[in-house]
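Colleagues,

For the teaching module next term, I've prepared a clean inverse folding example: a structure given as C-alpha cells, and then the sequence designed for it. I'd like students to try predicting residues themselves before seeing the answer, so please don't circulate the second half yet.
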C-alpha cells in the first residue's frame, strides 16, 4: 500500500497509557499509539521489547485498518473467552466476574517464577467457577520444554482441557509433544509459532498443531491473517495482544470475516483494562462482542495521554517503523 505521509501521522498521533486491573505480561500499564485514518480509528501497539522489524508489521496492520476498506463480515456477534492471568487461585473468581456470560476461559500457565503447583491451583479454581460445562484452555506462551509440558498435562488433564496453547517454543517441540499426547485427546494450538515466525505456515506444514491462534496486528492486518488461516488449512482462534478497544475492533473484524469460527475468541481482554479510550469499551456481554468500528473519546484520550517522554518515544518508533515499511 502507499504509505500515509509520516508528518501527517506524527501530527495526528495520540499516545495513551492505560492502567490494567491486574498485572499481565509483566506490565501494569498498556501503552498504544492511536491514529484516525479515512476508514476510522486504528491502533499501533507492539510490545515495548519488540524490535523495529517486528514492530513494523504491526504498523502495516494499523495503516491497513485505518486507510483501507476491510473484508466483509459473515457474522455480527463473535463469542469470546475470559482470560485469566497468572493470578493466585483465590483471585480467579474476581477475574472471571469481569467477563459477562463467557462460557470459555483461557488460563495462563508456566509463568516465570511460579510452579506447576500454582498452575494446578489456578486451573482448579477456574474449573470450579466455570462448572462442568465450561470450557478451559491453557496458554503456556512457550514456557515449557517437551518433558515439562508432558508432565504438566498429566497434572492438569483432570480439568477437562479444551486445548493447550503454545506449550513449547519451537515447532519441532510442538510436533513431538503432539505425538506424545496423541492418546490424550488434547489439541495443540500454535500462537507464537504463527505470529512471531519468519514462516507462519511452517507449524501447519510440520503437523505440529491442531489449530492456529491468529492476531491481526502481529500478522500485518486483517487480510494478511485471513490468508494465513486459509493456507494453513487449520481451524483458527482470533486473539488479542492486550489492545485497547480500537485494536480489539481490528481483531473483531478478522473474526467476523472468517468463514468458520469453531472456537470462542480471545478478544474480551478489554476486561483486563482499568480504563479505555472509548466511552463504550468492548467488554463481553452475554459471552460475545459485536463487530464494528470503535470511536475514540477525546476526553479519554486526554485523560490517559502518556507522559511527554513516552509520547516522544512512540513517535520515534513510529518514524523508524515507517522507514522500514517505506524501504520494502
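(Answer key — instructors only)
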Amino acid at each position: 500500500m502507499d504509505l500515509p505521509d509520516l508528518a501527517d501521522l506524527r501530527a495526528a498521533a495520540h499516545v495513551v497509557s492505560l492502567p490494567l486491573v491486574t498485572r499481565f505480561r509483566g506490565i501494569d500499564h498498556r501503552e498504544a499509539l492511536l491514529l484516525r485514518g479515512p476508514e476510522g480509528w486504528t491502533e499501533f501497539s507492539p510490545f515495548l521489547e519488540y524490535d523495529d522489524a517486528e514492530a513494523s508489521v504491526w504498523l502495516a496492520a494499523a495503516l491497513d485498518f485505518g486507510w483501507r476498506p476491510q473484508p466483509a463480515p459473515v457474522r455480527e456477534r463473535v463469542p469470546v473467552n475470559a482470560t485469566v492471568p497468572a493470578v493466585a487461585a483465590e483471585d480467579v473468581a474476581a477475574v472471571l466476574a469481569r467477563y459477562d456470560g463467557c462460557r470459555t476461559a483461557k488460563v495462563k500457565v508456566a509463568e516465570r517464577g511460579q510452579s506447576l503447583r500454582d498452575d494446578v491451583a489456578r486451573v482448579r479454581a477456574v474449573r470450579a467457577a466455570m462448572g462442568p460445562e465450561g470450557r478451559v484452555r491453557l496458554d503456556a506462551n512457550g514456557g515449557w520444554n517437551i518433558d515439562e509440558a508432558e508432565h504438566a498435562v498429566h497434572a492438569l488433564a483432570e480439568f477437562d482441557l479444551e486445548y493447550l496453547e503454545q506449550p513449547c517454543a519451537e515447532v519441532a517441540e510442538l510436533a513431538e509433544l503432539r505425538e506424545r499426547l496423541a492418546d490424550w485427546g488434547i489439541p495443540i494450538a500454535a500462537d507464537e509459532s504463527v505470529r512471531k515466525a519468519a514462516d507462519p505456515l511452517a507449524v501447519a506444514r510440520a503437523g505440529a498443531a491442531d489449530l492456529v491462534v491468529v492476531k491481526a496486528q502481529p500478522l500485518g492486518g486483517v487480510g494478511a491473517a485471513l490468508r494465513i488461516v486459509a493456507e494453513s488449512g487449520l481451524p483458527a482462534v482470533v486473539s488479542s495482544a492486550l489492545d485497547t478497544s480500537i485494536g480489539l475492533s481490528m481483531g473483531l473484524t478478522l473474526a467476523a470475516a472468517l468463514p468458520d469460527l469453531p472456537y470462542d475468541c480471545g478478544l474480551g481482554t478489554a476486561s483486563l483494562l482499568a480504563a479505555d479510550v472509548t466511552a463504550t469499551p468492548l467488554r463481553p456481554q452475554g459471552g460475545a462482542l459485536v463487530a464494528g468500528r470503535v470511536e475514540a473519546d477525546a476526553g479519554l484520550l486526554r485523560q490517559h495521554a502518556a507522559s511527554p517522554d513516552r509520547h516522544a518515544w512512540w513517535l520515534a518508533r513510529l518514524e523508524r517503523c515507517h522507514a522500514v515499511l517505506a524501504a520494502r
